[in-house]
Amino acid sequence: MKLGNSHLLVSHEGPILSCVLNQPDRLNAFSDDMISGLMEALLEAEKNPEVKVVVLSGAGRSFSAGGDVKTMGEADASHLYDHVGKLNKLILKIKQVEKPVIAVVHGYAAGAGFNLALACDQILAAEESKFVLSFAQVGLVSDGGGHYFLSKLIGPYRTKELLFTAEPIPVETAAEWGIVNRVIPLENLESDAMDYALRLANGPGRAIGMMKKLVDLSERSSLEDILEQERLTQAIMVSTEDHKEGVQAFKDKRKPEFIGR
């Protein structure tokens, strides 16, 4: 099956599935085609054992402006309800895929574009990039999970201020607040992001997938629940080939060669 469409470029290079938001003339504003294309790519990543990591980036001057302001006001409530429903399914799928999804941000990550990045497991951002919850500027509330993700990262008071004022967050502040994992010079962003993605791809895939699941589960679980989930998961992981390889490599004083099983 051919993945992608004119609004989402998809390429599979080794263990990396690269997805590029592709409406540069509209700062990669979301379209139904873009959302459906990304959903198809994530479903492929989920079922294809050759895919170890998904990398999400944007073409042109910015990562994504989120909703398309040029067409706002044209859609009725029913259409918007349906559109946001598709976005919600996409956000949930990013969280469900037991493989790392890395957002590579440059320029602006605005509105639902910011929230799309927040749904990912890691955010690598270029110097000079900015993040903004721009919904108040057009009289809307945040969608795409922004209220949920950001309040857990920076607390309710800072989140409300950003929502109420729609003021951009410079990348340095985003890094200080724990929103961004790494700040990288723009000219090195693509190569450094791919190096990082390959590092994860060469890791113990099943263990990394379960780590993602457990961390995300901890957001809505008690300590007792997480301890029990860790206990059950560890009992499964101890029999994996990657665990045996990791132990043997440690004994042999060499770098392990994980296979994701």
Summarize this structure briefly.
The chain has helices at 32-47, 77-96, 112-119, 146-154, 156-165, 171-176, 186-201, 205-218, 223-237, 241-252, and strands at residues 8-13, 16-21, 53-58, 101-105, 108-110, 122-126, 130-132, 169-170, 182-184. It is an alpha/beta fold and 261 residues long. The strands form two sheets. The chain has a six-stranded mixed sheet with strand order 1-2-3-4-6-9, sandwiched between helices.
Global structural class: alpha/beta
Distance between the termini: 25 Å
The quaternary state of the protein chains shown equals single chain
Beta-strand percentage? 5-15%
**How many whole angstroms does the radius of gyration measure?**
19 Å
Strand order of the largest sheet: 1-2-3-4-6-9
Protein traits:
6-stranded mixed sheet; 261 residues; alpha/beta
Could you describe the 3D structure shown?
By secondary structure, the chain is of the alpha/beta class. The chain contains 10 helices and 9 strands. It has helices spanning 32-47, 77-96, 112-119, 146-154, 156-165, 171-176, 186-201, 205-218, 223-237, 241-252, and strands spanning 8-13, 16-21, 53-58, 101-105, 108-110, 122-126, 130-132, 169-170, 182-184. It has a 6-stranded mixed sheet with strand order 1-2-3-4-6-9, sandwiched between helices. The longest helix has 20 residues, at 77-96.
Topology:
Layout lengths: L7 E6 L2 E6 L10 H16 L5 E6 L18 H20 L4 E5 L2 E3 L1 H8 L2 E5 L3 E3 L13 H9 L1 H10 L3 E2 H6 L5 E3 L1 H16 L3 H14 L4 H15 L3 H12 L9
Parallel strand pairs: 2-3, 3-4, 4-6, 5-7, 6-9
Antiparallel strand pairs: 1-2, 7-8
Helix pairs in contact: 1-2, 4-5, 8-9
